[in-house]
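Preliminary data (for renewal application), adenosine-3',5'-cyclic-monophosphate complex.
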Amino acid sequence: MDDQELLRTVPIFSELTDGDITSLSRLTNRRRYPKDTVVFFENEEGDFFFTIVEGRIKVTILGDDGREIILSVLGPGDFFGEMALLDNEPRSATAIAVEDSELLSLHRTDFQSVLSDNRSITAALIKILTARLRRANHQISTLALLDVYGRVARVIVDMARDEGKRLKDGRIAFRRATHQEIANRIGTTRETVTRMLKDLERQGLIHVEGREIVVQPDFEKVFD
Ligand code: CMP
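Predicted structure:
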């Protein structure tokens, strides 16, 4: 796919005219990030906005005790790195490729001029930032109100909803995250997650099939 075709598939740019897409494609650069490489660190100065073409990017912050807290895992079509460009503050989090990834980068000055020239992008950006705030509120309620068992169950529900594919038999399959990744999403230990997942599996609520976790069609009700 050439850069113009790629940009067309990115939701935030979907309302742009062909002419605008052509101009934008001249301003973006493709960059490859092998698995486990850092795109940027929390607290660095940042000058680029990124859109994910391929792969997955983990957005994390470090707790005072050095533990990693995962804020989000973003995939193709998602963007990140906008906050430092919008408020001129340092990066609010670290971004790491968790798979071999390809990104399109846009420099700060170009990002700002594209935003001021295209109301549709500003509107799309606000909509997505609002969705992120809703998601963050949901995460706060998960952490503040649920015990560890409830948090693990909630992560399963969230991953099935965000990343799941429906199988022919109606069940929903999604990527089997490592137990450490799940633990870092909900502020617990890997051992606890392993124990809880085994328990959910024993109760028949989840099934691990190869590299996927599979849940029943009415999984949300079961976990409520
Ligand atoms: P920036 O602060 O420039 O660098 C870190 C980026 O991570 C930030 O921009 C956002 O793009 C992204 N980010 C920060 N917090 C969240 C969150 N809660 N959910 C999703 N993405 C986030």
